[in-house]
Design a protein that fits this description.
With about 190 residues, this protein is α+β, with helices and mostly antiparallel strands. About 40% of the residues lie in helices and about 20% in strands. The chain contains 5 helices and 6 strands, in the order H-H-H-E-E-E-E-E-E-H-H. The strands form 2 sheets. Strands 1-6-3 form a 3-stranded antiparallel beta sheet. Strand 4 and strand 5 form a beta hairpin. It is elongated, with a radius of gyration of 21 Å.
């Protein structure tokens, strides 16, 4: 999903048909208010995504890297690593690694690193780090609608969208009940 997808869904929710027409390519000369709304919504979408990734639903990436001198520098990873979840060898087996502040030490020539990362600032056409199964476009749109409503001073509307956002995130994070073995009174 892209930032544009999130903005389109949000525009339908908050009644910004001018922005929706612009994003769909139906307007050749958008007004200043339309372009301003697109810029504000893009910045707010980045805020919502960054907050969600840093709190409830982290962005996770698997990246294959070639090891140099037994070291994998965090700065050489494609994203800004927050936490390493696992390191795998070429056979897909988890391996031991040692952390240092700047790099990790491994005893392999090539590894795959699974890590949580801090999302970058996305532009309008950027593909974001979440997939639809991680978090839905609708959920992100609720969060954006809440933030956009606050920016317009529509606090009652913001509360409504925020409640939907919180409920949607909570439903995604809900732990499944485990199945217990049936009791036997024999």
């Amino acid at each position: 999903m892209t930032i544009k997808d999130i903005l389109k869904a949000t525009c339908s929710m908050v009644g910004r048909e001018d922005v929706l027409d612009y994003l769909n390519g139906n307007t050749s000369t958008p007004g200043e208010d339309t372009l301003n709304a697109v810029n504000v919504m893009t910045a707010l979408a980045n805020l919502v995504i960054g907050e969600l990734a840093g709190t409830f639903i982290p962005m996770v990436k698997r990246e294959s890297v070639v090891v140099s001198d037994r070291k994998v520098k965090y700065a050489d990873l494609a994203e800004r690593c927050l936490r390493v979840l696992a390191v795998y060898n070429a056979d897909g087996e988890k391996i031991y690694y040692k952390h240092t502040p700047e790099y990790m030490v491994v005893d392999e020539n090539a590894v795959t690193i699974e890590y949580e990362y801090n999302p970058p600032n996305y532009d309008l056409d950027s593909e974001i780090g979440y997939k639809e199964e991680d978090i839905s476009t609708a959920t992100l749109s609720y969060g954006l609608a809440a933030e956009f409503s606050i920016s317009r001073g529509s606090f009652d509307e913001a509360v409504m969208w925020h409640e939907r956002y919180v409920d949607s995130v909570a439903a995604k994070r809900k732990l499944k009940n485990s199945t217990l073995k049936a009791r036997s009174f024999v």
